[in-house]
Automatic annotation (TrEMBL), chain A:
<feature type="domain" description="ABC transporter">
    <location>
        <begin position="4"/>
        <end position="238"/>
    </location>
</feature>
<dbReference type="Pfam" id="PF00005">
    <property type="entry name" value="ABC_tran"/>
</dbReference>
<dbReference type="InterPro" id="IPR052156">
    <property type="entry name" value="BCAA_Transport_ATP-bd_LivF"/>
</dbReference>
<dbReference type="InterPro" id="IPR017871">
    <property type="entry name" value="ABC_transporter-like_CS"/>
</dbReference>
<dbReference type="GO" id="GO:0015807">
    <property type="term" value="P:L-amino acid transport"/>
</dbReference>
<protein>
    <submittedName>
        <fullName>ABC transporter ATP-binding protein</fullName>
    </submittedName>
</protein>
<keyword id="KW-0547">Nucleotide-binding</keyword>
Automatic annotation (TrEMBL), chain B:
<feature type="transmembrane region" description="Helical">
    <location>
        <begin position="264"/>
        <end position="283"/>
    </location>
</feature>
<keyword id="KW-0472">Membrane</keyword>
<dbReference type="InterPro" id="IPR001851">
    <property type="entry name" value="ABC_transp_permease"/>
</dbReference>
<dbReference type="GO" id="GO:0015190">
    <property type="term" value="F:L-leucine transmembrane transporter activity"/>
</dbReference>
<keyword id="KW-0813">Transport</keyword>
<feature type="transmembrane region" description="Helical">
    <location>
        <begin position="227"/>
        <end position="252"/>
    </location>
</feature>
<dbReference type="GO" id="GO:0042941">
    <property type="term" value="P:D-alanine transmembrane transport"/>
</dbReference>
From TrEMBL, chain C:
<feature type="compositionally biased region" description="Basic and acidic residues">
    <location>
        <begin position="31"/>
        <end position="45"/>
    </location>
</feature>
<keyword id="KW-0813">Transport</keyword>
<keyword id="KW-0732">Signal</keyword>
<dbReference type="InterPro" id="IPR028082">
    <property type="entry name" value="Peripla_BP_I"/>
</dbReference>
<dbReference type="InterPro" id="IPR051010">
    <property type="entry name" value="BCAA_transport"/>
</dbReference>
<feature type="domain" description="Leucine-binding protein">
    <location>
        <begin position="52"/>
        <end position="394"/>
    </location>
</feature>
<dbReference type="GO" id="GO:0006865">
    <property type="term" value="P:amino acid transport"/>
</dbReference>
């Protein structure tokens, strides 16, 4: 099934054109990555899908339903989880409370299921279990990123969109995160991944898109893009 | 000695009323994200609603009064939200602020026209008796007021800590866009938060009217300012610290009056605020535990 | 782009509504005008020979003293209707306009200045408080238009200007009277605790009381003041009652009922004496059982049993929705004094009734009012007779009639 389809999306912020005529497709069970330099429009793409910014033009389909004009909270409740740039966990709520709120995204979750789901996240992220009564703001960057992802998983989403999950994290933690993403896909979920760390992203992705100045410049299988000359020159050479 | 103790008791009673208003204020500022100037009018609106409920039913019944006050102020909260906040979330902050000033003027004058500017008595809502325990003298009225505030505060605490919806309100007050991203209907829940804060203010208004045996439309402004002050002492968005702030102001005022004169009541309250803020700009709140 | 315009429209609407709100609640905010205009006005005034005499009324229609200001307006209206129905004052029809000063001296001054600068007005009735009248008196003196206050009783008012009159006796007269005849003679008290409203009026009364009590040998155990925005008297009540005086003297007007309620709710049983509101029906109505036994001096007893005033009281209640207090019937008498002045002037052969003529004839006018003879003394104040009343079973009962102590 076509999980997500973005058709001819154009977005302006005032006079600044963020996206022009961008189209992507994500099928069920895939890991799709969107790479590109700063300001290329990657975050804008996710914000548009979640309907947090106004679109000038274009249509968005999720599970074959048109969500272009749907209110953000309804989009979430349809099974689309967006883990934003900068993690955005709730700093004055405890780890447990953050996770608990994650269930809001799925109205089919009953009270008694909550505990089970929380335990699942604790299995995936033992460090979160240790800190379960601590305030979100006191966690390290990596732990906050895990919390953000765990919170997203609490709603048992069909599609999970991750915006720069590796940003500002130590290499060891980054590896953990990417392994996690694979695990998530293995449980039957679909992943749309935005990344600056193009090498890592392309190495785990089934397919990828390259955004340049708001346009889709290249697309193809992950492995192919990894070995593409232009991609290597522009996005892979600069990585340490 | 007995005189000093009765001043403390007065201070506790006055303080708990301020605390309730401040709690309502903090909920509004926290959840909606805007400072409001309509709080004073919302407070008095609740008192009037209870007054007319009593007239309509023909008898004084405290639970009825509390319900009427809460509901009436809740409705005013909806009005304020739709006029001042809903459209202005993405606009510069001062627009919503000015709007609340305008609405407060509108409400105050509307109340004067509809209810009349004259004073109305509020007596015999409960059978008053004086209880003496050693050097302490306290009236049943004072006990009822303090208890009402305590019960409502505990109720609010329960909602905010033990219900998912209450926790989501706290989330909204910390980060609106993150809240939207996990499926919270921010616009609707922010309005409900505003209404809860307003409802509590309405009940505080009823308690004020009962405590002072009087109500009239222009009473609201001073109380709005005191609520704001107590809330600022608590760091503006913290509910428990706002309650502490309210209690402190009530006690400071009453003790201050004891050694000087009632003319200086407001001076004590606001000088206290200034001193605290000079020493600790964040009020009673701790420095961390805010936004990252 | 549509959302931007929408935002602008709503913001503009909010700003406009705020401006309307601000101007609506501050009536009569005139521009500051040159005072040389006052002299020009006088010349124009001298040639006013229309068949109408216009009265400007100013008083607090909102705020803490709202009932009194509204009382002015309604009482003046009743008197004007009565006089016009009987053919006017020597054939002149009376009309009036009223404006709200909210007991604020600045607002009051603005309104009085507007009346004074408008040739249409020949005489002003108001304001309610001494603080406003002190400022107003300066203005009417400059513009030379007569002004009569039905109620303000500050001792600086009589003689403050040739153009200013007061229907009320001063505190210099009333306070010692109350101290001697109510506290000492009637209540037999040896000690008092005083709580007073911190305004020009209240502070003056307190000053005269303290002096009087000292001369009478009555101990003042406590003397507490509060602002007119105060609503919570519990701390003052605690302070006063802890000294255990024989009598608690409350110097106030609009807050009297609230204070009585709060004193009794705090369980304080001490005898209460009021000084200020007279025998106001509101006090009895708004206090239930709490006012039982409260004592006060008053210049008039307005009850429906008193045939001389019951007609006025009924009409007043129909129009105002609440009962008339002494202040209202004084405003009523003020209009009749003006009418009497006009009638006397016409009888003397005056063909023009202008501001100066009215002022001159007010000085010698006498009116047999429902509450006794009204006339001004040399300083343009009045000395009124008083009686002592107590609240029994929810009603005022006369304890010492007019002239009891003479």
């Amino acid at each position: 099934m076509e999980m997500l389809k973005v058709q001819n999306l154009s977005v302006n912020y005032g006079y600044i054109t963020a996206l022009t005529n961008a189209s992507i497709e994500v099928d069920q069970g895939e890991i799709i990555t969107l790479i590109g330099s700063n300001g290329a429009g990657k975050t804008t793409m996710l914000m548009s899908i979640s309907n947090l910014v106004q679109k000038n033009q274009g249509q968005i389909f999720f599970k074959e339903k048109n969500i272009s004009r749907m209110p953000s909270h309804k989009i979430v409740k349809n099974g689309l989880c967006h883990v934003p740039e900068g993690r955005k966990i709730f700093p004055a709520l405890t780890v447990y409370e953050n996770l608990w709120l994650g269930t809001i995204g799925n109205q089919n979750i009953k009270k008694k299921d909550v505990q089970e789901l929380v335990e699942k996240q604790y299995d995936l992220f033992p460090r979160l279990k240790e800190r379960r009564n601590q305030g979100g703001g006191s966690l390290s960057g990596g732990e906050q990123q895990m919390l953000a992802i765990a919170r997203g998983l609490m709603m048992d989403p069909d599609l999970i969109m991750l915006d720069e999950p590796s940003l500002g994290l130590a290499p060891i933690v980054v590896e953990e995160i990417f392994e996690l993403i694979l695990k998530i896909r293995d449980t039957g979920k679909t992943v749309l991944l935005i990344e600056q760390n193009a090498a890592m992203a392309l190495s785990i992705a089934d397919r990828g898109y390259v955004l340049q100045n708001g346009r889709i410049a290249l697309q193809g299988k992950g492995i192919e893009l990894l070995h593409n000359e232009d991609v290597k020159r522009l996005y892979l050479g600069a990585d340490d | 000695m007995q005189y000093f103790i009765s001043q403390i008791v007065n201070g506790l009673c006055q303080g708990s009323i301020y605390a309730l208003m401040a709690i309502g204020y903090s909920v509004i500022v926290g959840v909606v994200g805007f400072v409001t100037f309509t709080h004073g009018e919302v407070i008095i609106m609740g008192a009037f609603a209870a007054y007319y409920a009593f007239e309509f039913v023909g008898s004084m019944n405290l639970p009825l009064g509390i319900l009427a006050a809460f509901v009436a102020s809740w409705l005013v909260g909806i009005f304020v939200y739709k006029v001042c906040y809903e459209r202005f979330f993405k606009a510069p902050r001062h627009i919503a602020l000015i709007c609340t000033i305008a609405v407060s003027i509108l409400l105050k004058n509307l109340m004067q026209i509809v209810f009349g500017a004259a004073r109305k008595p509020m007596i015999n809502v409960i059978d008053n008796k004086i209880y003496t325990m050693g050097p302490v003298q306290i009236s049943r009225l004072q006990i009822v007021i303090i208890l009402t505030v305590v019960v409502l505060s505990l109720l609010l605490l329960f909602i905010f800590k033990k219900t998912r919806w209450g926790v989501s309100l706290r989330a909204i007050s910390q980060d609106k866009s993150a809240a939207a991203l996990i499926g919270i209907n921010v616009k609707r829940d922010a309005m409900v938060g505003n209404c809860i804060g307003s409802g509590l203010a309405g009940v505080a208004g009823l308690l004020i009217a009962m405590s002072y045996a009087i109500l009239y439309p222009s009473m609201g402004s001073t109380f709005g300012m005191k609520a704001f002050t107590a809330s600022v002492l608590g760091g503006l968005t913290s509910v428990p610290l706002a309650a502490v702030g309210g209690m402190c102001i009530g006690l400071v005022e009453n003790i201050g009056i004891t050694v000087t004169s009632a003319t200086y009541r407001d001076i004590f309250a606001f000088v206290f605020l200034i001193i605290i803020l000079l020493i600790r700009p964040q009020g009673f709140a701790s420095k961390k535990g805010g936004r990252p | 782009m549509k959302k931007q315009t929408m935002k602008r429209v709503v913001a503009l609407a909010a700003a406009i509504s705020m401006v309307i709100g601000l101007t609506a609640c501050s009536n009569g905010g005139g521009d500051a005008k040159d005072t040389t205009k006052a002299a020009d006005n006088k010349e124009q005034q001298e040639s006013n020979t229309t068949g109408e005499i216009n009265i400007g009324v100013v008083g607090p229609m909102t705020g803490a003293n709202a009932e009194d200001g509204i009382g002015f307006k309604v009482a003046v209206g009743i008197a004007v209707d009565e006089i016009n129905a009987a053919g006017g004052a020597a054939g002149y029809k009376l009309t009036y306009d009223s404006n709200d000063s909210a007991s604020d001296a600045n607002q009051s001054a603005d309104i009085v200045r507007q009346y004074a600068e408008n040739d249409k007005y020949s005489v002003i009735i108001g304001d309610f408080t001494t603080s406003c009248c002190v400022v107003d008196a300066e203005i009417v003196d400059k513009y030379q238009i007569p002004m009569i206050t039905p109620t303000a009783s500050g001792s600086q008012l009589p003689g403050i200007s040739d153009w200013f009159f007061s229907m009320s006796h001063t505190q210099e007269y009333e306070s010692p009277w109350a101290a001697e005849h109510v506290t000492k003679d009637y209540l037999g008290a040896k000690s008092v605790g005083i709580m007073y409203l911190n305004t020009d009026w209240g502070t003056q009364v307190d000053g005269f009381l303290l002096k009087a009590y000292e001369e009478l040998g009555i101990e003042v155990l406590a003397n507490e003041s509060y602002l007119d925005t105060e609503t919570n008297f519990s701390s003052i009540v605690s302070k006063l009652s802890s000294e255990k005086p024989d009598v608690i003297v409350v110097v106030d007007q609009s807050n009297a009922a609230t204070i009585i309620n709060q004193i009794r709710s705090a369980g304080v049983e001490t005898q209460i004496q009021l000084l200020g509101p007279g025998a106001a029906v509101q006090i009895v109505d708004q206090t239930g059982d709490n006012s039982e036994g409260v004592v006060t001096n008053t210049a008039s007893l307005l009850t429906y049993d008193n045939e001389k005033v019951s007609g006025f009281m009924k009409t007043f209640y129909e129009q105002a929705g609440f009962d008339a207090a002494d202040h209202a019937i004084c405003a009523y008498n003020t209009v009749y004094m003006i009418a009497t002045a006009i009638e006397n002037a016409v009888a003397d052969g005056k063909t023009e009734i202008n501001r100066t003529v009215i002022k001159d004839y007010l000085e010698t006018a006498e009116f047999d009012s429902p509450i006794g003879l009204v006339k001004f003394n040399e300083l343009h104040g009045s000395n009124r007779d008083m009686l002592i009343v107590a609240v029994e079973n929810g009603e005022y009962v006369v304890k010492c009639d007019y002239g009891y102590f003479d």
